[in-house]
TrEMBL record:
Protein's organism: Dyella marensis
Cofactors that this protein relies on: L-ascorbate
Superkingdom in the source lineage: Bacteria
Protein name: Prolyl 4-hydroxylase
Annotated GO MF terms: iron ion binding; L-ascorbic acid binding; procollagen-proline 4-dioxygenase activity
Annotated Fe2OG dioxygenase domain residues: 168-273
This protein's UniProt keywords: Dioxygenase, Iron, Metal-binding, Oxidoreductase, Vitamin C
């Protein structure tokens, strides 16, 4: 297809060189924007030069009504009458380590509720289908929103903490890792250039933030790693790691590091830009 807006040869060469240098199309767009190009110009040029569908790049623009979380502020935040300490903060990726998000009793009760319902964890493939995956060897289960008074209380606490309505949350997921099990580096946001993108974002839109809550303290290993920042958050019972990201934020890459001794239990809350629950 012929474009009405001619792309200067220098810009075309720069886009190609930057992409060949290992940058994703979304990163190329970001670099162009930082250099002063407007969003539409960037999308048009990157789409044409790299052959990425324009719709995939446009899907990264938050649509009307899309919300963002408020990052919990140090030193502490009172959410729904419960004090949470912010013991570490990072800007890129946006990370907050939250101490005392859950009580010991809440951790124990969540494990007890989830245990009888565990099954091998799934990932979402490029057609939007759920499947088992060697990269993710834990066992897990989902609660529905507000399924029990405990779940409801935790969801309300998180909603107040990040100032986002409960309805933006996916159902709470509990994962159990045994020694040797891990969750290899990945992004929680959905890749707009993948064919399954429309299916997974049809309800609630894109993911914007995650909260991984540690329900026990593994004897060794099992932290959450953020390789772009060289950061490992220790899995400590009752504490949590909150991280927020825009679509395409490469710094939000993270992993559930292998459990070396003992076991690891977490509860994950993924948050969407629009209401996910009807
Ligand atoms: O197990 C962890 O520490 C990380 C879990 C995670 O990345 C996720 O549930 O999306
Ligand atoms: Fe994750």
């Amino acid at each position: 297809m012929k474009s009405f807006h001619k792309i200067r040869p220098e810009l075309r060469d720069w886009i190609l060189a930057t992409a060949r240098g290992g940058h994703t199309p979304l990163e190329v767009v970001k670099l162009m924007q930082e250099a002063g190009y407007d969003q539409q110009q960037c999308h048009r040029a990157v789409s044409e030069v790299l052959g990425v569908p324009l719709a995939a790049l446009n899907a990264t623009i938050p649509r009307a009504g899309a919300r963002r979380t408020t990052h919990p502020a140090a030193p502490s935040s009172v959410a729904d009458g419960h004090a949470v300490r912010v013991s570490a903060s990072l800007d890129s990726p946006v990370v907050r380590v939250l101490d005392g998000l859950l009580t010991d009793d809440e951790c124990g009760d969540l494990i007890a509720l989830a245990s009888p319902r565990l099954a091998r964890s799934l990932t979402v493939d490029d057609k939007g289908r759920h499947q088992t995956d060697e990269r993710r060897t834990s066992n897990g289960m989902f609660f529905s929103l507000g399924e029990t008074p405990l779940i409801e209380r935790i969801e309300r606490r998180i909603a107040r903490l990040v100032d986002l309505p409960v309805e933006h949350g996916e159902g709470l997921q509990v994962l159990h890792y045994q020694p040797g099990q891990e969750y290899e580096p990945h992004f929680d946001w959905f890749d707009p250039t993948q064919p399954g993108f429309n299916a997974v974002t049809a309800r609630g839109g894109q993911r914007i933030a995650s909260i991984v809550m540690y329900l026990n303290t593994p004897k060794e290993g099992g932290g959450t790693g953020f390789p772009a920042a060289g950061l490992i958050v220790t899995a400590l019972r009752g504490s949590a790691v909150y991280f927020a990201y825009d679509t395409g934020d490469q710094s939000s890459l993270h992993a559930g590091l292998p459990v070396l001794r003992g076991e690891k239990w977490i509860a994950t809350k993924w948050l969407r830009e629009r209401p996910y629950q009807r």
